[in-house]
Amino acid sequence: MKFILVRHGETMANIGKIYSGWSNYDLTEKGKLQIKILAEELKCYKVDAIYASSLGRTMETAKEIARIIGKEVVANDNLREINFGVFDGKTAKEIEKNYPNEWKTWLNDYESYRIPEGECLQDVLNRAKSFIDSIKEKDGTCIIVSHGGVIQSIITYLLDLELKKMWHFQCPPGGYVEIDYTDNFGYLRKLIPSYI
Fold first, then answer.
1. Residue 167 lies in a domain
2. pLDDT for 136-156, tens place per residue?
3. In its keyword annotation, does this UniProt entry include Hydrolase (predicted)?
4. Which of 10, 50, 56, 140 could cross-link 31 (Cys pair, CB 3.0–4.6 Å)?
């Protein structure tokens, strides 16, 4: 399977440095332009399926890609961003002020510390793995439209790396990553930032 992991276009939360997990923030004008350019770039691939997180920003991105390449979008909740729980909708400064103990604990153990009313990073990886495992041995090419943390987690899984290695990869809004997965081995082929 060839995986094309696409991050949604820039949102108001991205420019405001707001932790947005399951809450939705609109795409900026730049974000809307990013996905139009991205969709044109991706039409060179022979795509068999498009999957997307069910959140608004990813669905808007996926639908634009689908419109250009002529495929339907299949929404999947396992591709959602981390549930930031009580951190959601706040900047780092606001979180540190309102939840100092939780913030410190999460920074020291983001893999396994479950944010109150939310998730830990291992939860995100587990649900992403469940989805990836259901399709990774198929032939063809799929586009997965998701979020920064989810994409980084999927990269570590497909490349057989520890989860903490996710920080070595960054897929910015409107960017994408191409990974070929064959015989239980992942090859990172491209990591393309946004064109604007």
1. yes
2. 999 999 999 999 999 999 999
3. yes
4. 10
Answer whether residue 152 is part of any domain.
yes
> What tokens were used for 181?
């997965």
Dihedrals phi, psi of 160, to nearest 5 degrees: 60, 50
Band of the pLDDT at 196, cuts 50, 70, 90?
confident
Q: Which residue has the tokens 């409107």?
A: 174
Q: What pairing do the DSSP bridges indicate for beta strands 2-7 and 176-182? A: antiparallel
- The CB-side HSE value for 99 (13 A sphere, CA atoms) comes to 19
Residue with tokens 């930031």: 84
**145 falls within a domain:** yes
Entry pTM: 0.96
Q: What angle do CA 84, 86, 87 make, to 5 degrees?
A: 55
* pLDDT tens string 13-50: 999 999 999 999 999 999 999 999 999 999 999 999 99
